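Recall the central idea of this unit: under ordinary conditions, the amino acid sequence of a chain determines the structure it adopts. In this exercise we apply that idea directly, starting from the sequence alone.
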Amino acid sequence: MPLVGVALISFIVGMVKGCPGSPNRDAAEQYVEYWAEGNYVAMYDMLSTKSREGITQERFIARYGEASAEATIESIEQSDAEGDETNAEIPMEVDTLAFGTIDQSLKVTFGSDGIAWQNSLLFPGLELNEELTRVTKLPGRAKILAEDGQVMAEGPVDAREHPLGDSMIDVTGVTGPPDQEEGPDLTSLALGYEPGEDTGISGLELAYNARLTGTPGGTLFAKPIEGGTDGQGRELGSGTPAPAKPLKTTIDPDLQESAVANLGGVSGGVTVLDAKKGFIKALAGSAYSVLQPPGSTMKMVTATAALETGAATMDSSYDYVTEAPADGRMIQNAHGEVCGGTFTEAFAKSCNSVFAPLAEQIGPEQFTRTAELYGFNRPPQVWNDEGLAAVNPPTPTLPEADDYDSDLGVSGIGQGRVQATPLLMASVAQAISNKGISLPTPITTEADLQPEMKPVRVTSQKVASQVADLMVAVVTSGTGIAAAIPEAQVAGKTGTAEVGPSGEVDANGDDILIEDAWFAGFAPSDKPQLAICVNVLDASGDGGTVAAPIAAAILSDGL
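Accordingly, the structure predicted from this sequence is:
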């Protein structure tokens, strides 16, 4: 009998509050669950027909995005809803970046066939005809430090300074007004910035803008949409700003200055990596932001795949010719030169007549697999997901195994649809120098900012050693002799990529092509410390003439 009495009382309480499983209460809870997941489309689908006639899906999603940014929402949790046939009230706990944790209830009204849309659904605690408004205060922006602790960037967001000189800007990037042509900058708004206020717009200032900003503070209000009000309205929550600690990078300031100075302001890019640890030591120009055909630096990949599959050995030899068939056409050597000999000589002299047919012998599956192990067809491994999304650098690419369309041979010599950056080709050289193990290329040592990639075994230690020997021959007796330095033996590979007609013709009436110059390598060859790639766009000469000397100067400074 006592148990029956308890059950009866519970039943009556349930009827008063809205019994468990009631459709409206369940719908309200589902709406908030979708909200917590950021699934605005599913939320919109739960609106009544009349509500959907009054607000488009695009506008609905935009309004929730703007409200979320205004409130700096980080997470949403809910408790059990209470309600009846026309209304429901859901206690919510909203964690915000700037205004602390806000405990308020969301009031939901139902139409005949769904949730009735009204402005108060944008945030818990809002009443009908109220809107969110705020007053925010940002803490001091964090410094950006080099690996030795020297300051590369400091000062307030609207007046950043670079004590080590402007060469650091190629890494740190800059702050400035956000681009608002496509609407409000919700990312900056969600970090406590007001519309149009200076924020990180490039480089590390953009990639780690949230990290450098620290925790904003201020007060969030519910303010009447129309009519007068004292102050800002009803207070919903408040918080105190807290500055972030300095961001320490892996940049060597002397190498950074050397990279920028030796690139000399021409269009192109330079990347210098720690050969054993993978992290970035210097970046100059378009080191990771512009994709171009890598030219014959791609032969590092082709040689690896050839030795792995047995399509070539270190004892292989080739006829001396000016051209050879691949992809159903004749592929010429640079400037129609006669090229051939041993595998080492063919690599050192960069024989297209050897490596284009060799790519076909390797086959599309193994060629693609090797290239992808080296880093093609995956995003650059510099930042964590947050930084990657902010900077959005392009992904180096080559065709999938079944999509070469008679371009496999030219892919083997870094032409066709192969696209790379100096960062990637420096990473290829790093993997070879590191006994066949490719590493991520982070730019900071902070654990929670690291890219997700783990070390990747690209090839065996034996094959990596053989490719390294081929690269030494390039510098000692091949196309890359201009990369030689007195401090150490350099291993490398030159590249010259044809990227299109210049609009001019030579004495024979043939189109003069725009060419990019490349050099990728590492030093010292026996105990590698630095891996490098240099790319010069629309170069005045080939990779051995233009890019190799730049690499030599930087490696010499670094060693």
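The radius of gyration is 30 Å.
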